[in-house]
Amino acid sequence: MTQPILIRRDGHRPRLLDALDLAGAGVPVLPLRAGKLPFGNCPSCTGNACGGRPNMKTPGACQCPRPCHGWAAATDDPAVLQSPAWADAWRQAGAVAYHPGGAGLTVVDLDDADAVAWARQALPATRTVPTTRGEHWLYLGTMRSANAVRPGVDIKSSMAYARWRGPGTGTMTDLPEAVRALAVKEPSTVRPAPHVITVPAPGGECRHRTPAYLDRGIAMAEQRITEARSAVHTTVYRTFLSVLSAHGRCGCLTDTHVARLFTAAQAKGESPRHCTDAWTNARTRLGL
What we know:
Number of domains: 3
Number of strands: 10
Structural class: alpha+beta
Distance between the termini: 48 Å
Helix content: 25-40%
Strand content: 5-15%
Shape: globular
Order of helices and strands: HEEHHEEHEEEEEEHHHHH
């Protein structure tokens, strides 16, 4: 695989020029607001009402030219980056971000000194980029993104963005199995404690603990999210609400079940933060 040429960032130049340098090297970029957050939906796409994701080859994908869909707004098209629709975003931008998966990369985000020390022992050497508190380790190859795979460690690749902090040092190596394995979580053996007192089903055991019953419910929820063609954010929230209403009061849901729902939602363009917010709001509404 050919290594993308990551251009050295000059902190005194306008961020749009940095973005154009990266785009010219085939790295999809987007502006970030202060606080490292992507720009919000434009008025016509508020709440992802359009149901689409720009710059993705999907039937019915939103054609909105503004950078309003998080990581999916990243592009390496200089005409889009310099278009009037993006001008305000670049003027307000606090930083430049890029879509690692779109550039054929995976970023292991090490958030503190302990995480960096662990990586130096556990992972193959590759290109490293210093960050405010830790380092980004860049590998050639893509995988699904995952947060908190271990203390202080996130993986950013497909359907995620990483802040551009410079080209780093060292030679990028191929994505190792050791990194891929971090995103494969073992099913939790500890069930959440019940939030309310419930009456067991006949036979003395909660019916939700029947694997077929619970798995069918999760599969139906995944399908409902996947088949959403509009109002994705609302669909995700209502689906989470439905799952928690049926299965949330008796401690049957494991981390694996929740991860399946979050993965389906993120495949439709929802960010990890939006998934967490929707889950929390659904729990609050049900008094869990």
